[in-house]
Design a protein that fits this description.
The protein has about 270 residues and is of the alpha+beta class. It is built from 12 helices and 7 strands. Strands 3-4-2-1-5 form a 5-stranded mixed beta sheet, with helices on both faces. It has a two-stranded antiparallel sheet with strand order 6-7.
């Protein structure tokens, strides 16, 4: 997980690293993890795709010692094609306890810009205990249904939005097959859940068109993909044999929080 195996152009990577350093200085935090989270991490980016950088951070210890609620998100305005935002560790750990799928995807990103290995190894070691298949299934099903209603229900559809319905549908199939935490890589989802050769060929062709920069705006439905989505959305709604997490006990995560503060600030 998070091996950083994908190549990002040196100039872009440096711009991202510089932006993270500016955030640390202006917000007085330490960023212990930063990764790519959007289509570039999923594996179906086009040349003009944004860079969706997400990070996790820690304030100094005294910042947390107050009765007042404080902001737990840092967001920066878009700079060109650079979209950067992050979560405080307490927010991240509470979402981790709830098996929040976007966070679980960040932990698997193949494009990592910053990583404190000591802290992140603890996160990943606890993942099997807090991963909740049923919570993730509900998240991905809701996402697929919403995107389907918005983009794909008519005879003329937003073709590039097929990915934003296909991906959560395949995630549900991955969960149903009990294959573990849903991977961030789209191709891995396809390989692990699509058995029909015609469907796989249609998906592969659509991915190739997107990577080549072909305009995928409004157009006719793709029968193989639309038929699959229509059937799967109905079928997945009736799934009722998906297990919850092994635990949601916050004590191990409290320990991780304290250890992370020590690691980051001594």
């Amino acid at each position: 997980m998070g091996s950083g195996i994908k190549v990002i152009e040196d100039g872009i990577r440096q711009s991202i690293v510089d932006e993270l350093a500016l955030i640390e200085k202006s917000e007085q935090v330490t960023i212990f993890y930063a990764c790519e989270s959007g289509s570039r991490a999923w594996g179906f980016e086009s040349k003009d795709s944004d860079y969706d950088v997400r990070f996790l951070y820690l304030h100094p210890v005294d910042w947390y010692l107050t009765i007042l609620d404080k902001p737990d998100v840092i967001e920066r305005p878009m700079k060109g094609d650079l979209d950067v935002s992050g979560w405080d560790i307490r927010k991240a750990l509470e979402l981790f306890r709830k098996s929040n799928p976007p966070l679980l995807e960040w932990l698997q990103s193949p494009i990592v810009y910053r990583q404190n290995t000591a802290i992140m190894d603890q996160f990943r070691a606890l993942l099997p205990e807090y991963y909740s298949p049923i919570a993730c299934l509900h998240h991905y099903l809701h996402m697929a249904q919403g995107n389907f209603r918005k983009y794909l229900k008519d005879e003329e559809v937003w073709v590039k939005k097929y990915f934003y319905v296909l991906r959560p549908v395949l995630a549900c199939r991955w969960i149903e097959r009990d294959l573990g935490v849903v991977p961030i890589a789209f191709q891995k989802l396809v390989d692990g859940t699509v058995d029909d050769k015609g469907l796989k060929s249609a998906i592969t062709d659509l991915m190739a068109r997107k990577r080549q920069g072909v305009e995928l705006d409004r157009g006719p439905r793709i029968p193989a993909i639309s038929g699959f989505i229509d059937a799967e959305l109905q079928r997945i709604e009736s799934l009722n044999q998906v297990r919850p997490a092994l635990t949601s006990d916050p004590r191990r995560l409290d320990e991780l929080f304290r250890e992370a503060l020590k690691t980051a600030w001594g």
